[in-house]
Structure formats: structure tokens, C-alpha cells
Amino acid sequence: MAEPEPDSDTDRNDRGDSGRRGRLGLIVPSSNATAEPEFRDYLPDSITVHGARMALESVTVDELDAMSDDAARAAELLGHADVDAVAYACTTGSLIHGPGFDAELEDRLERAAGVPAVATARSVVRALEALDAERIAVATPYTDELDEKEREFLDAAGFEVAALDGRGLAANAAIGELAPTDARDQVTDLIGSDIDDLDAVFVSCTNYRSLAAVEGLEADLGLPVVTSNGATLWDVCGAAGFEADGPGALFDRGRDR
């Protein structure tokens, strides 16, 4: 029996014009145990997530620099799976070489995979811009060295970083052990330090389990809260033409496609 034609926009979103399910490619550091589950939690069953990994154990400048060499090959292999879009899910890995590297990385991945590609650092910029955010507070699990690189990147992107707090962790496995309650406590303590006139809060790192904390934090703070995985999921779904039922103010905003 012939398969019936889709009868709604939702059906078309879930199945695609060819009748197949949607597919997202996700490039992550080898020690990241958070991005894939967080993506899966906020996607419909009709969109599948297909991962590729790049070697990284510690979130340091040297390891992040070496890891970026594997990105194009990972994207190329995901292209073999006929994915609809690719996301490079590593925040500091996509800003490590300063302003402009994030856009160059997206271009390189798009050429390798043959489909639209996004990189977390650029996705965060797009997310904050979509929320009309200018003055932000930033919570990270990182060391001071990486916190400073992140501050420089966000400053160059046009955001005023009113406050930044890092947990001083380098081992990515240790970052992955943090819970949403840790993110909530870190942000609450940061905002409690008399920061006025904030437009948004950014919780950085795709291995920091923070997406589940977004709705509670937004209710407590009265501010939009963006996380690395939230921004990346929102952005790559926009690039692929999919919808994700993610938490918070960001997912109430459309993405220019």
C-alpha cells in the first residue's frame, strides 16, 4: 500500500519531503556525555541524532586546538549518513582561535558535510542576538585561561560581559559530572552579586548539564537563560528546517533561515 501524503505542517517537518525521518549530525568531544542526551530530550522521536567524536579529555587550549583538526573529517563522515544539518557542539573549541574562527569553522564543516553546519560559539551569538541581549552574565565550568578567551570572544561579538564566573575545571569528565542543580546554584550566586540591567544569562559548555535548569532560572530571575546546548540545538534545527521543543525564551523565538 502506498504511504499517505503528509496532511499537516507537522508531518512535513517530521518526515521531510522524501518521506524519511529527519536526521541531525552532532560532532562532540570524545569525553562529552551531555550533548547527545540533552538534544534527544528536546527533539521529537521523528528526528534522530547521529554522533561523531573528536579526541579530547581535558578542556585546555592545547587539546582544543588539536581537536579542531578532526572536525572536517567528522563532518564528512556524518554526510555519509545523509544528515540534514551538522552541529559542532563545543563552545571553547569553536572560539579558541578568536573572532571569526567560529564562522570559518562553520564554512569548513558545511563544505565537508555538504549540508548546513553550525558551531556552538556562533550559535550562542545568534541566540543572544535573537533575544536582543547586550549586557550579559556568564557562568562556565572552565579555568581562568579559557574564561578569558570566552570573555574576549563575547566582547568582540558586541556583548558586554557584566560578570563571569568559572568553576576552574579542566577535566571534561569532571565537567560532565555536574548536574543542572549545580548550574542553577552557580547562576543564582553570580546574579546575587548586585549585577544590574542584565539582558540575559549564558551558561557555557556543551558538557555542562544545564539545559534542564533553564525554565526554573528564568522563572526566578525574570531573564532569558541561554545554554551552549540550547543555543546549538535551536540553531541547528533552524538550519535544518526542524522544530525543537526546547525550554525557555530562546525556543519561543524563530531563527532566520
TrEMBL record:
Signal peptide: none
One Gene Ontology MF term: isomerase activity
Isomerase among keywords: yes
Keywords: Isomerase
Alphabetical list of InterPro entries matching this protein: Iso_Racemase_Enz_sf, MaiA/AMDase
Record keyword Membrane present: no
Pfam families assigned: Amdase
Protein's recorded name: Maleate isomerase
Residues covered by region (Disordered): 1-32
Biased composition (Basic and acidic residues): 9-20
